[in-house]
Specification:
This protein is mostly helical and 176 residues long. It is 70% helix and 3% strand. The protein has two domains: 2-101, Rna Polymerase Sigma Factor, Chain: A, CATH 1.10.1740; 112-173, Winged helix-like DNA-binding domain superfamily/Winged helix DNA-binding domain (Arc Repressor Mutant, subunit A), CATH 1.10.10.10. It has helices at 24-43, 46-62, 64-67, 73-101, 112-123, 126-137, 142-149, 153-173; strands at 2-4, 10-12. Strands 1-2 form a two-stranded antiparallel sheet. Strand 1 (2-4) and strand 2 (10-12) form a beta hairpin. The longest helix is centred in the middle third of the chain and has 29 residues, at 73-101.
């Protein structure tokens, strides 16, 4: 006996000669829990098992016109669910292997001198700090700094002189 379900899918109701369920709703109701328990035992995660079985049933529903005529549609759903579970295991194993190969790089903590220098630089006015950093850390000449900052070379020399004096005062106070 054929019936048309609310969503327009035509399904055979009743049980076939070998006991196969031909109505999708009946198949789902009769098989979901058992398949979920099987895959829960395999995966060790109930939520993952439910997701895999649900995905298998979604795929079965999309192909229901051909699957409903199988002798036992549950076999098809079970095979798809197990294949999905195996694929998830493979993806997880690949991810774990990738993470194992990634070595955490240990970076030494900054020395007390470096911490003191950074704090002292932070207290300088922005123009002096830029000039000192560009000259001593970026190895730029006074002319290059002047060009980058759009200031005369004499002004850059003044920033450097004042910046060095302020740094010297702050760093000698701390004994560095």
């Amino acid at each position: 006996m054929d019936t048309v379900m609310a969503d327009g899918v035509r399904a055979r109701t009743g049980v076939g000669a070998v006991g196969a369920v031909h109505d999708f709703d009946d198949l789902y109701a009769a098989s979901f829990q058992g398949l979920t328990l099987q895959l829960y035992a395999y995966l060790g995660d109930l939520a993952e098992a439910q997701d895999v079985v649900q995905e298998a049933f979604c795929r079965a529903y999309a192909r229901w016109k051909s699957i409903r005529d199988y002798e036992d549609p549950v076999l098809w759903v079970r095979r798809v669910a197990w294949n999905l579970a195996t694929s998830r295991f493979r993806r997880q194993r690949t991810a774990v292997n990738f993470l194992r190969r990634q070595r955490e790089e240990k970076v030494a903590e900054p020395s007390p001198d470096r911490v003191a220098l950074v704090r002292a630089l932070a207290k300088l006015p922005a123009q002096q700090r830029r000039a000192v950093v560009l000259h001593y850390m970026a190895q730029l000449s006074v002319a290059e700094i002047a060009q980058q900052e759009g200031a005369p070379e004499g002004t850059v020399k003044s920033w450097l002189s004042r910046g060095r004096a302020a740094l010297a005062g702050q760093l000698t106070e701390k004994g560095i």
